[in-house]
Amino acid sequence: MHKSDYRPRLITLEDRVVPGTTLANSLDPSLMLTLGSSLSALDRELLSTGAESQVADLGRANVGAAIPAAVTGADLLVQVAGNQASGSLGNAAIGLGTANMLDSSHLLQLQQGFGIHSQGATVYDFAIVPGSGLIVNNNDQGLDGRNPPTDFYHGVSIGSDGTVFAAQQDDPIFFRTVSGGGSHFDLRFRMRSDMNGTFDSSSGSMSVTVAQDVKIDSMDAGGFDGTNCSTPVITLNFTTNDPSGNPFTFDNQGVGHGTIGDNIFGQDAIPYGACGGIPGFTDWATAINLTFGLPAPAGTNHFWLNVQATPQ
Q1: Whether the predicted pLDDT of 21 surpasses 60
Q2: Alpha-helical regions (H) of the chain
Q3: Do the domain assignments include residue 4?
Q4: Neighbour-count burial for 74-84, b at 16+ CB within 10 Å, e otherwise
Q5: CA–CA gap between residue 18 and residue 20 (Å, rounded)
Q6: SS3 for 130?
Q7: What's the per-residue H, E or C state across 202-220?
Q8: What's the rounded mean pLDDT across residues 191-220?
Q9: What's residue 181's pLDDT?
Q10: Residue closest to 36 by CA, chosen among 16, 74, 10, 6
Q11: Tens of pLDDT along 222-268?
């Protein structure tokens, strides 16, 4: 089998992709690849006919399906916009001629994985600043943002069509330490799904949906199980139409300010035994549920976030 020495290079993707377009248009080989003068007839044939490959999550380089050897052998060098470093995807392959391989949310994940802003979209860090709060079972939990900010939703993309998207992040949105009974407990408020929603630039209204939980750990509570201790996952529907909400406004630097909230969610209790304990003495899940008032039925809770949206 002929093996070309040609190595295609993926160049800057900025202004190449409009959210919602299909991959065939988004990753046009005439736009995306610097072919060089040594392109062989076999190389051209492969590129013009398309490789029947299947792309999963390029952020994790999970590439499957049958990939022709000539394509598999190519190292795709990625030039990240705004960054001098380049990385190699090794034997990863991109199906150049196949339409409808990625929907718009997957495309945004791919772009954000490479630090790329698509045409017509702006990517923000949503910082949670003072003026935020959390009420559970009619009890104020004392949670608020900080100045300077330490709590974030990262990589929130707002498209020109009003689409809001942020990939699930590993970093907690909030990290707090509380004390009780002579022990210390670390609380991590985590995203458990991507964020999806809409934004109306004319009114400043925004609505987003995201699944979250709270991971709890302790280094000094006897018999504590920090591996399995977390609140059941809930879906939050944040909106500027919340009683504490405020529409977003943007200054001349492109920084936005607004408040989104959800006052209709419920929160189940942590299952008995999930957080460990001392047999015959205490069950930590029960103690945590009593401390925070869980379970907390819908109508007794309110979570609102005062957001400072800073362009990346």
Answers
A1: no
A2: 23-26, 29-32, 41-49, 69-72, 104-113, 284-292
A3: no
A4: bebebeeeeee
A5: 6
A6: strand
A7: CCCCEEEEEEEEEEEECCC
A8: 98
A9: 79
A10: 6
A11: 999 999 999 999 999 999 999 999 999 999 999 999 999 999 999 99
Q: Which residues contact 41 (CB under 8 A, 6 or more apart)?
A: none
Token pair of 35 as six digits: 């072919």
Query: In this structure, is residue 266 part of a structural domain?
Result: yes
Q: Are 214 and 190 in contact (CB under 8 A)?
A: yes
Range of the domain at 37: 9-113
Distance of CA 159 to the CA centre of its chain: 15
Please state the length of the chain. Answer: 312
Do residue 144 and residue 43 come from a single domain? no
In 3-state terms, what secondary structure has residue 139? Answer: strand
Do 155 and 304 sit in the same domain of this protein? yes
Q: What single-letter amino acid sits at 27?
A: L
Residue the block writes with tokens 């060098």:
77
Three-state SS at 51: coil
In a domain, 26, yes or no: yes
Q: How far is CA 66 from CA 63, 93, 101, 227, in A?
A: 10, 10, 15, 38
Tokens of 120: 């017509």
Strand partners, 153: 126
Please state the rounded mean pLDDT for residues 265-281: 96
Give the count of beta carbons closer than 10 Å to the beta carbon of residue 203: 10
Q: Are residues 223 and 300 both part of a single domain?
A: yes
Query: Residue with structure tokens 């990385």?
Result: 87
Last residue of a domain, one of 66, 86, 113: 113
pTM: 0.64
Contact partners, residue 85, CB within 8 Å, separation at least 6:
none
Give the CA distances from residue 151 to residues 59, 128, 260, 304, in Å, rounded to whole numbers and listed in that order: 24, 5, 15, 13
Task: Write down the residue that tokens 């990290």 correspond to.
Answer: 175
In single-letter form, the type of residue at position 172 comes to P
